[in-house]
């Protein structure tokens, strides 16, 4: 069992733009005064440069192109609709925005099988959409695969009952809490857990200030410390630069890297960078257009492939 993988799936966008259906509760999204074609072209440039950086250090990136006819503005964030597990299980997740549901593509699973990965079982939670119930993959769930704990900040995109069902199906202990951000003077739930928290093998980067309930905050800190993880706390301002939206992956010779955007990297203090680099080097790439219009960053773009080889 490993917390990190050297293989990730990424979807190259063809219709990237600000998604009005997700903007209702993703307060990280902003409108850019550009035509959609320009926005998509900039996103493609950022995507390609990011993939090149990942491959340069030996991370295996499977790039699948989005399909134009689907008109899916957020297809660049595949970790919300699928997760891949070491026993060959694949989970498919219910998504809040109707125009994101077309992102779930069987041909992508076939592509992984063609690449030599073994899919044993598909656990499909997508019927929950009919009840207006959502759980958006590893956006909503942070999986500590070694200690078998799943962390989840409840929101309109992370339903408690469905989260518990996932934990029972996959044998994870549920670690539930609520995380907030200030929007126009109000404390509102953060749409995805993975923008305020990152779980690596030996450390966690987390915006503790966003967990308003002191008992919940203590409980999360206690759980992380019990598992021997160093805690690197970030501020809400840093979280808004996507400093929580990071992922640890493996490159050449099993070297671990903490992958993040340039904005996230630039927001960190020298002390925070030193704390991270005690564990592994940082790899960052500029994702400005994707972050601004999509309200997601580096971690959201990478679906980790833990499937066994056939």
UniProtKB/TrEMBL annotation:
Keyword set, alphabetical order: Hydrolase
A Pfam family the protein falls into: DDAH_eukar
Source organism (scientific name): Bizionia hallyeonensis
Protein name, per record: Citrulline utilization hydrolase CtlX
GO MF annotation, one: hydrolase activity
Gene name of this polypeptide: ctlX
Signal peptide: none
Coiled-coil ranges per UniProt: none
Keyword Hydrolase part of the UniProt annotation: yes
This protein's record includes keyword Flavoprotein: no
InterPro entries attached to this UniProt entry: Amdntrnsf_FN0238
């Amino acid at each position: 069992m490993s917390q990190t993988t050297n293989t990730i799936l990424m979807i190259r966008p063809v219709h990237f733009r600000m998604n009005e259906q997700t903007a209702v509760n993703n307060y990280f999204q902003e409108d850019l005064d550009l035509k959609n074609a320009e926005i998509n072209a900039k996103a493609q440039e950022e995507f390609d440069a990011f993939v090149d950086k990942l491959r340069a250090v030996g991370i295996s990136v499977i790039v699948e192109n989005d399909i134009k006819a689907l008109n899916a503005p957020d297809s660049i964030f595949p970790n919300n609709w699928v997760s891949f597990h070491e026993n060959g299980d694949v989970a498919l997740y219910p998504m809040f925005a109707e125009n994101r549901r077309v992102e779930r593509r069987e041909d992508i699973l076939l592509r992984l099988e063609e690449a030599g990965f073994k899919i044993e079982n598909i656990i499909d939670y997508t019927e929950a959409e009919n009840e207006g119930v959502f759980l958006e993959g590893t956006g909503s769930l942070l999986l500590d695969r070694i200690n078998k704990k799943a962390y989840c900040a409840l929101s309109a995109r992370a339903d408690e009952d469905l989260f518990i069902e996932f934990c029972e199906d996959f044998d994870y202990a549920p670690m539930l809490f609520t995380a907030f951000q200030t929007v126009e003077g109000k404390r509102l739930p953060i749409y995805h857990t993975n923008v305020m928290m990152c779980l690596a093998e030996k450390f966690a980067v987390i915006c503790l200030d966003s967990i308003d309930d002191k008992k919940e905050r203590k409980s999360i800190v206690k759980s992380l410390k019990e598992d021997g993880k160093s805690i690197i706390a970030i501020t809400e301002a840093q979280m808004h630069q996507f400093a929580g939206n990071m992922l640890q992956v493996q490159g050449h010779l099993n070297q671990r890297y903490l992958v993040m955007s340039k904005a996230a990297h630039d927001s960190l203090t020298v002390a925070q960078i030193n704390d991270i680099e005690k564990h592994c080097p940082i790899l960052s790439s500029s994702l400005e257009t994707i972050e601004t219009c999509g309200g997601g960053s580096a971690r959201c773009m990478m679906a980790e492939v833990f499937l066994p080889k056939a």
